Amino acid sequence: MLITTLPEVPGYRIVKVLGVVKGNTVRATHFGKDFLAGLRQIVGGELKEYTEMLSNARAESERRMLEEAARLGANAIVNVRFVSGNITANAAEILVYGTAVVVEPVQGES
Asked: Which of 15, 44, 49, 73 is the most buried (most CB within 10 A)?
């Protein structure tokens, strides 16, 4: 599956638009990791516990979007965007969305 933030896939033409697809997840931090991150905020530096949590959340959201696109018969997703937001003080949502399409190579460009 081709995925791009562009409105088209270079070297391909869109032959069918299947609609918006999305994937999301809401993640909360573990108390122990919150505690460690709180200590790290005092001295500065990367909050690795949160970086890991958000990285995993993005991967899960993207996987869910890909599954939805595959169910529709897409072979590409264009205009992909990630959005995040706080649900509570200790939980965040990651949403990824794009347009599922069917593309085919442009003659002489693939």
From this structure: 49
- Which residues are paired to 17 by β-bridges? 101
Question: What Cα–Cα distance (Å) separates residue 70 from each residue in 22, 50, 58, 94, 96?
Answer: 12, 30, 18, 20, 15
Q: Does the residue 42 lie in any domain?
A: no
Q: Specify the higher pLDDT residue, 88 or 23.
A: 23
- Predicted TM-score (pTM) of this structure: 0.81
Number of other residues whose CB lies within 10 A of the CB of residue 9:
20
In a domain? residue 75: yes
List, in order, residues 6 or more apart from 19 with CB less than 8 Å away. 72, 99, 100
Q: What is the pLDDT of residues 10-68, one digit of tens each?
A: 999 999 999 999 999 998 765 455 555 555 556 666 767 778 888 889 999 999 999 99
Residue 24 lies inside a defined structural domain of this protein? yes
Q: Are strands 12-28 and 2-3 parallel, antiparallel or unpaired?
A: unpaired
CA 2 vs. chain centroid, Å, equals 14
